[in-house]
């Protein structure tokens, strides 16, 4: 069994290798069945190859291998013996399955395409076996999921096509992580309802993005922040009805944008700056700057197949001066393109206005140098708006004048025949007011009389940018989409009630207020040309009031003139005096010298005053210091005298105390003493006293001097700086005799035994 398998493998290798080698050397040996070898393109195409048989192929480097109609699961070792293949295509297989190692052995493959193979799932790491992969095409399969880190190991991947799969809600936020070099991504027809910005933060080099034919409903700022390197973007065929303001602010490098086949009716403030723009087949009804804001770098615009478009405003292309190609065709309701739409478009070379319902041809096209002009298939009226097209030689690629037909009555005739009997004269303003005056709360009528054939229509523009249209009887208004009166933004306003356009085209303002003063512009135009004039309205008051105001004005003017003259004279005199010139001076010194002398005198006076003040201040300070010193010395002297007197008193007091103590002691220690009553007292008798004093008396006698000495010591510790304190009354000199008498009275009477 093993030997037969080996034999079959070698036989297959021989069958495939021999034709390739023969083709390389120019041999005419044919390829085996189910395979075709093309040496010129280095391609091997095998049809209906059974996937159960491993493929043996040793091809030259750079070979392209195509397997058609191979169904089933690709075995892990199917490509194990394949070398030299750099491009692999699996096309048309029914129920093809790729396992985790089905692509083993294809490490040199740079381009892989699995197309129309009914592939339902891509294993999470099946592409990790292709580290050199640069291009991957998985279009028209049944893929519903992209796993986390699906392309992490494919760091060289530059192009990825996932067209016509069913990826709604099945793409992981980090599925594209690792694809930093990816430049082209196609997600067309994948039923996506949103393309989150998380997908694109892993693709900083992405330049081409195709999200067409999905189910997107809006363009959000959060989803476009990572589109910084994007150059080509296709959002056609979705259900986009809203584009957020600033949605394209991050796409500064965007050059091509396709928004066709959506439901957009307003595109303003998106931040778009592309050079090629297609907004065909959308829901625009009016195309002007209020509904459609074009990029300033725009070079080509396509605005076709808009079934609701009826009017193109004159300001649509004002912000696109670099426009070169313009296509506004197949809009079945478009009846008017305003005459000023093509003004200042000097670079415009290709214009297609065919297959619309236009009734007039814009006059601005006559001033352009066009290489191509297509106006066929419209509903032109035979009027003067087409006269320039007949008289001027059209471009070589323009629609021939005889091929353009116009309506005359109920029939259509060739353009040259229809204009043969029409008289056209350019517009001119023959008479108009240059100045107008009206009192407050009065009525002002502004006149403007144009001439031309056909009769021109008038448009009045007020200083507040209010617009009023007037058309002659029996003709249409100059701007079919504009109401008879409106503001600059086509809105209504209560201020419009002050204005009325009279049947003859004059403008009436009533009642007049101060805010109505200003310049009014009268614009007259017909299908052949246009002209303009202006009227300045001055708002005044009654005549008497005017006289009073004029008198006040003259008086004020005279006063201001006199004041100005006086100022000029004074200024001149000041300049002469400043420069040292004096016209009226009688002394010898010039004004400058006098001024300098006065300054010196002032300085000298100031110096003398300063010196006198310093001298007086010095004397005062010296006297104050002397007084202070004298007072301090006197205070010290008084303090010293008080302390000396106090010390003398203390000395006398101490001597007296010592004397008393000595007497008491002598009395107590005298032997045989008796304390007897006085001799003159009745009942006196001899009292025998002990030789030693009583202990209580001894203690009392011992403590008394100590207490008296303590008092004296405390008095002696008084602060020398303080004035001396007087002695107690019992210690003063005048009490000393009484004290001595008291001590003598207390002295006991000593009797001999």
Can you walk through the features of this model?
This protein has 753 residues and is α/β, with parallel strands linked by helices. α7 packs antiparallel against α8. β24, α4 (387-391) and β25 form a beta-alpha-beta unit. The strands form eight sheets. The chain has a 16-stranded mixed sheet. Among the domains are: 425-543, Immunoglobulins (Immunoglobulin-like, Sandwich); 635-677 and 687-753, no CATH class. It is built from nine helices and 37 strands.
Category from helices, strands and their pairing: alpha/beta
Low-confidence stretches: 1-30, 476-480, 681-753
Give the termini separation: 171 Å
Q: What coarse outline follows from CA principal-axis ratios?
A: flat
Q: Tell me the CATH topology of one domain.
A: Immunoglobulin-like
Second CATH tier, the architecture of one domain: Sandwich
Fold topology:
Blueprint: H1 2-24, E1 35-38, E2 43-47, E3 56-68, E4 73-74, E5 81-91, E6 97-98, E7 111-115, E8 135-137, E9 159-161, E10 184-186, H2 197-200, E11 208-210, E12 218-219, H3 221-224, E13 232-234, E14 242-243, E15 256-258, E16 276-278, E17 286-287, E18 300-302, E19 311-312, E20 325-327, E21 336-337, E22 350-352, E23 372-374, E24 380-381, H4 387-391, E25 405-408, E26 411-414, H5 415-418, E27 425-432, E28 435-439, E29 444-446, E30 448-453, E31 457-461, E32 467-470, E33 485-486, E34 499-501, E35 507-509, E36 518-525, E37 530-540, H6 543-578, H7 591-669, H8 695-716, H9 736-746
Parallel strand pairs: 2-3, 3-5, 4-6, 5-7, 7-8, 8-9, 9-10, 10-11, 11-13, 12-14, 13-15, 15-16, 16-18, 17-19, 18-20, 19-21, 20-22, 22-23, 24-25, 28-37
Antiparallel strand pairs: 1-2, 25-26, 27-30, 29-35, 31-32, 31-36, 32-33, 34-35, 36-37
Helix pairs in contact: 7-8
């Amino acid at each position: 069994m093993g030997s037969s398998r080996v034999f079959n493998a070698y036989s297959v290798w021989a069958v495939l290798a021999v034709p390739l080698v023969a083709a390389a050397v120019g041999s005419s040996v044919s390829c085996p069945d189910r395979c075709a070898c093309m040496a010129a393109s280095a391609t091997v195409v095998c049809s209906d190859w059974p996937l159960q048989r491993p493929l043996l192929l040793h091809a030259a480097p750079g070979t392209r291998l195509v397997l058609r109609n191979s169904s089933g699961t690709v075995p892990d070792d199917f490509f194990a013996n394949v070398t030299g293949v750099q491009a692999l295509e699996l096309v048309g297989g029914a129920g093809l399955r790729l396992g985790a190692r089905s692509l083993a052995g294809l490490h040199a493959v740079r381009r892989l395409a699995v197309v129309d193979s009914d592939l339902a799932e891509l294993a999470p790491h099946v592409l990790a076996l292709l580290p050199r992969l640069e291009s991957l095409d998985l279009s028209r399969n049944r893929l519903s999921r992209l796993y986390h880190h699906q392309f992490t190991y494919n760091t060289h991947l530059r192009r990825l096509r996932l067209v016509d799969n069913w990826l709604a809600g099945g793409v992981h936020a980090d599925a594209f992580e690792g694809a930093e070099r990816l430049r082209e991504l196609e997600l067309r027809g994948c039923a996506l309802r949103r393309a989150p910005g998380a997908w694109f933060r892993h693709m900083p080099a992405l330049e081409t993005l195709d999200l067409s034919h999905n189910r997107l409903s809006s363009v959000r700022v959060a989803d476009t922040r990572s589109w910084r390197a994007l150059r080509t973007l296709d959002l056609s065929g979705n259900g986009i009805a809203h584009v957020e303001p600033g949605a394209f602010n991050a796409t500064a490098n965007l050059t091509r944008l396709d928004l066709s086949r959506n439901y957009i009716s307003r595109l303003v403030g998106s931040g778009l700056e592309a050079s090629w723009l297609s907004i065909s087949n959308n829901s625009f009804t009016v195309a002007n700057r209020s509904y459609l804001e074009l990029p300033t770098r725009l070079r080509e615009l396509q605005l076709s197949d808009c079934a609701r478009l009826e009017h193109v405003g004159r300001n649509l292309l004002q912000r696109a001066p670099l426009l070169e190609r313009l296509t506004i065709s197949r809009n079945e309701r478009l009846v008017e393109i305003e005459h000023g739409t093509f003004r200042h478009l000097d670079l415009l070379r290709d214009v297609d206005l065919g297959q619309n319902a236009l009734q007039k041809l814009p006059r601005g096209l006559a001033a352009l140098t066009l290489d191509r002009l297509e106006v066929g298939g419209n509903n032109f009226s035979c009027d003067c708006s087409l006269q320039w097209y007949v008289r001027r030689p059209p471009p070589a690629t323009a629609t021939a004048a005889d091929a353009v037909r116009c309506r005359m009555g109920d029939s259509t005739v060739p353009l040259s025949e229809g204009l043969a009997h029409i008289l056209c004269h350019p517009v001119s303003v023959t008479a108009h007011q240059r100045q107008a005056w009206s009192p407050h709360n009065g009525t002002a009528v502004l006149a403007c009389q144009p001439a031309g054939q056909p009769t021109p229509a008038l448009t009045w523009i007020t200083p507040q940018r209010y617009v009023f249209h007037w058309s002659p009887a029996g003709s249409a208004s100059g701007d079919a989409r504009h109401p008879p009166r409106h503001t600059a933004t086509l809105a209504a306003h209560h201020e419009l009630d002050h204005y009325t356009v009279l049947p003859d085209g004059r403008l009436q303002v009533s009642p007049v207020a101060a805010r109505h003063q200003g310049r009014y512009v009268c614009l007259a135009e017909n299908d052949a040309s246009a002209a303009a004039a202006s009227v300045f309205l001055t708002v005044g008051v009654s005549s008497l009031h005017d006289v009073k105001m004029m008198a006040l004005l003259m008086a004020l003017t005279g006063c201001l003139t006199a004041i100005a003259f006086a100022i000029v004279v004074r200024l001149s005199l000041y300049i002469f005096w400043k420069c040292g010139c004096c016209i009226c001076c009688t002394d010898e010194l010039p004004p400058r010298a006098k001024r300098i002398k006065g300054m010196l005198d002032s300085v000298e006076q100031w110096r003398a005053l300063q010196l006198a003040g310093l001298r007086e201040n010095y004397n005062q300070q010296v006297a104050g210091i002397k007084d202070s010193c004298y007072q301090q010395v006197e205070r010290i002297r008084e303090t010293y005298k008080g302390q000396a007197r106090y010390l003398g008193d203390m000395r006398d007091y101490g001597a007296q105390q010592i004397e008393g103590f000595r007497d008491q002691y002598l009395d107590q220690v005298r032997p045989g003493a008796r304390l007897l009553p006085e001799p003159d007292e009745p009942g006196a008798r001899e009292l025998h006293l002990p030789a030693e004093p009583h202990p209580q008396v001894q203690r009392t006698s011992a403590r008394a001097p100590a207490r008296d000495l303590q008092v004296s010591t405390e008095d002696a510790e008084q602060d020398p700086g303080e004035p001396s304190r007087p002695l107690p009354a019992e210690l003063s000199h005048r009490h000393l005799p009484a004290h001595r008498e008291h001590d003598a009275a207390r002295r006991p009477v000593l009797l001999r035994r």
